[in-house]
Design goal:
The chain contains 11 helices and 13 strands. By secondary structure, the chain is an alpha/beta fold. The strands form 2 sheets. A 9-stranded mixed β-sheet has the order 6-7-8-3-9-10-12-11-13, with helices on both faces. A hairpin with a 2-residue loop joins β11 and β12.
Length: about 325
Amino acid sequence: MMQKLISVEGLAVRFFTRKGTVRAVDGVSFDVDDGGIVGLVGESGCGKSATALSIMGLLGPAGETTSGSIRFKGEDLLRLSPKEMRQIRGKEISMVFQEPMNALNPVRSVGEQVAEPLKIHLGLSGGEARLRAIEMLEEVGIPDAASRYDQYPHQFSGGMGQRAMIAMALICEPKLLIADEPTTALDVTIQAQIISLLHSLRERLHMAVLLITHDFGVVAELCDVVNVMYAGVIVEWGNVVDVFDDPLHPYTRGLLRSMPRAKRRQRKLEVIGGAVPSLIELPQGCRFHPRCEYVTKRCFSEEPPVFQLNDDRLVRCWLFEGRMKL
């Protein structure tokens, strides 16, 4: 039986803005097993990145975790001091951020940035850190890594920049990697290479991965379990094969129908009507009801609880009333 590496329970995150309070994450719960790979999927603005940033302790001054717990190896990260969190961040939990060209420091060489966690967390000297960083750059598929070490981010392509970000995140061999949209803005060939790279590194390092994406195709390639997120809450949980074969929540069904398929002849892609609601002014009742083709009168006034269909299928939808309620 797999052991839980990280367990998120009832997580709520708020951002305080001039326009009002943004309920970015609203009671989210999920687990990532040791060595497992879990997907967190949904449209932009649904709270995926805020969930990741709360795990990393990087919400910033405008954000606040208002309730819940994040237990990593049994210890609640939300109760740690900033100093204690810095000892974990980059060593035991690392993150690959969106858009590597924005995440990398433009005035420092790529190699220096990859080597920095070794100096901070493992106390390696400059020379030792350089040699290990070059090895890591080679491992993630960057050619002529010794020369590339001294180059700057603007001298790297998007795909090479993403590889450098992955090298930086994995240099201390963390137990958990959070990958936030790791293939966004990359062409399909580079996307396939990055997916293959993450898969092989995960197996070699036996690390767990939390993959954040809007792309169900990437989830199908990499994940064991998927959590579908909408407007700050998770609306469906399940094994990837089960969710693809039999999606339960109307939102999940819509996302899967909108995926292009090579064997399906169609003139245009299907879309989910409407847009993700404002997280400042959420609709009453079910958050998806303004866009749902199965909406009922009850959906307008009552937010559905989580219904458990079996040991590993959970769904937040009134269509499944009568099943076991959590």
